[in-house]
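Annotated sample (chain length 88).
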Amino acid sequence: AAGEATLRDDLKAMYLNDTNRARLKVVQALAAKHKVSLNDIVLAYLTSQPLQTIPIIGASSSAQIQESIKAISLKLSAAELAELTVTA
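Output written by the structure step:
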């Protein structure tokens, strides 16, 4: 993917693997299912955990902050959370 080609070598070494590629496909499918962004799914993954999780978001614009606030209302089911623990 074009995104992979733009990564620094140290990041490629840490994150480019079959497991993460499989997880990306699940994130993309869930985003399409819920009609939200990939970032929304990632934030929902964190906030839908059985134990309280308080993610710290970073934003470079007010639009990004608004998107993150909107994403908080998305709750993933236990089955969806399990899909995201896929290993290649």
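Annotation: The longest helix spans residues 18-34.
Annotation: The radius of gyration is 14 Å.
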